[in-house]
Design a protein that fits this description.
The protein folds into 2 domains: about 60 residues, no CATH class; about 220 residues. Helix content is about 60%, strand content about 0%. Helix 4 packs antiparallel against helix 6 and helix 6 packs antiparallel against helix 8. The protein is elongated and about 80 Å long. The two termini are about 50 Å apart.
Length: about 325
């Protein structure tokens, strides 16, 4: 959910980060499985090696310990934040999947000659968008210390769900309920449908860009996401995908006043653009769902710090 150059460049250095010289004689007192074989390293020196696979203990520490963990603000309700974050992305992905289902039913209707009405599917899809809207409220102010400007931006982005829901229902629940097959070539091209789809693309882009800063802020709590140990889809790429679909709609709009082959070519190119943009956007949503699963796990678990894992021998003798 964040670009490689967007990782932690602007993050302050942890004030309480332990210097290497102060832990040379320390031992691991917390639970820390070896990243090579899974062997429990509890009780070993930080300078030692895993007795099972021989991997340096320091390699496991560098991979799993998060030196920036203490710089993050404490979440008021981590479970609620995690649930809302997951609901936000998952509901949006479900809505996208249902849109593909409706277009698939169009094709099935063409093949079988049956008149399939899609209004019920449009109702369920609209409901999924509303669920995503409700869950997006968790991104407005996920924790204390969020800048006021960021809160206003996220709140504005979230409010765009309201016109998006109305526009979506008008396209898929009203217009498509009458024309039924917007891309099959049967009947006239609906100008109002194309214009409303362009409005959809703008609203979706505003929502993504407005919520992106706070989504990235939560993503930084996942060490794997922040350090680039796993790949992820950028939210800005999803905006670009929405732009590809919008370009397809514009081509279809341009084809209307033309006649003959030129009109058919532009209309076909527009349909291809809509399909490509929609496919890329859906893939991006699936990737975001995967990312939010990882972020949610990070929100629900305490980050591993060097202080929580190590203790000096002198400390141990005092305890005994």
């Amino acid at each position: 959910m964040a670009e490689p150059d967007d990782q932690i460049d602007n993050q302050p250095r942890p004030a309480d980060e332990t210097e290497p010289s102060s832990v040379l004689a320390s031992q691991l007192m917390g639970t820390l499985p070896c990243i090579g074989c899974g062997y429990e390293l509890h009780g070993l020196s930080v300078l030692g090696r895993c007795p099972e696979c021989g991997l340096d203990v320091g390699d496991t520490i560098r991979m799993l310990v998060d030196p920036y963990a203490e710089t993050f603000h404490e979440l008021t309700n981590p479970r609620r934040t995690a649930v809302l974050l997951m609901g936000w992305s998952l509901a949006a992905a479900v809505a996208a999947g249902l849109c593909w289902l409706m277009r698939g039913l169009d094709i099935f209707g063409d093949i079988t000659g049956s008149g399939i009405r899609l209004q019920r599917a449009a109702i369920v899809t609209t409901g999924a968008i509303l669920v995503s809207f409700i869950c997006s409220l968790g991104l407005v102010r996920p924790h204390a210390g969020v800048r006021r400007r960021g809160v206003y931006l996220a709140a504005f982005a979230t409010s765009m769900y309201i016109p998006l829901t109305i526009v979506f229902w008008w396209v898929h629940g009203v217009i498509d309920h009458g024309t039924q097959k917007p891309y099959s070539g049967v009947g006239e091209i609906s100008v109002s449908r194309i214009l409303l789809r362009l409005a959809e693309a703008v609203l979706i882009s505003v929502i993504i860009l407005g919520l992106r800063p706070h989504a990235r802020m939560l993503a930084k709590r996942s060490l794997a996401l922040r350090t680039g140990q796993i790949d992820r889809q950028t939210m800005r790429a999803m905006v670009a995908a929405a732009g590809v679909g919008a370009a397809g709609d514009i081509l279809r709009l341009v084809s209307l006043p033309l006649k003959g082959t030129a009109s058919e070519i532009l209309n076909l190119a527009g349909i291809v653009g809509v399909i490509m943009g929609s496919a890329l956007f859906t893939l991006g949503l699936v990737s975001v769902v995967i990312d939010t699963c990882r972020i949610s796990r990070a929100l629900l678990t305490s980050p591993v710090t060097l202080e929580s894992l190590t203790t000096a021998p002198s400390d141990q003798s005092q305890r005994h």
